[in-house]
Amino acid sequence: MSKKTINIPLGSQHISLLEPVRFKFECENEKIITVDSDVGFVHRGIERACTTKFKFDAIGYVVARVCGLCAITHSLSYTAAIEKLLGGEITAKSKYLRILLLELDRIHSHMLCLSHTCENAGFEAMFMRIMGDRELVMEIQELLTGNRIQFDYISIGGVNRDISSEISKKIIANLYEVKQRALGYMDEFTNNWSLSLKFKGIGALSLDDAYMLNAIGPLARASGLNIDVRNEIEYLPFDEVGFKMQTHRDGDINARNLVRLNEIINSIEMCNNILEGLPEGAIFTKLKGKPKGEAVIRFEAPRGELMYYVKGNGTAMLERVRIKTPTFSCIPAFSHIFVGENYADAPAILASFDPCLSCTAK
Amino acid sequence: MFTSLIKAFTNLFKKPQTIDYPLTPILKDKEYRGLIEYGEASCIYCLKCEKACPPGSILFVPVENPPENEKNKKGLQYHYNPYLCIYCGECVRACPKPDEALWQSNKKPSIAIKSDKVNEDWFVLEKLKKEE
Amino acid sequence: MKKIKVSLEDITNEIQGFYDYKKWHFLTLNGLALEDNKLEVQWIFSKYEALDEIVIYYAEIEYKDIIASIVDIIPSAIISQRELVDMFGVQVEGSSKGLYLDEDSLQAPLSGCSI
Question: Which residue among A180, B52, B63, C92 has the highest number of C-beta atoms inside a 10 angstrom radius?
Answer without folding.
Answer: C92
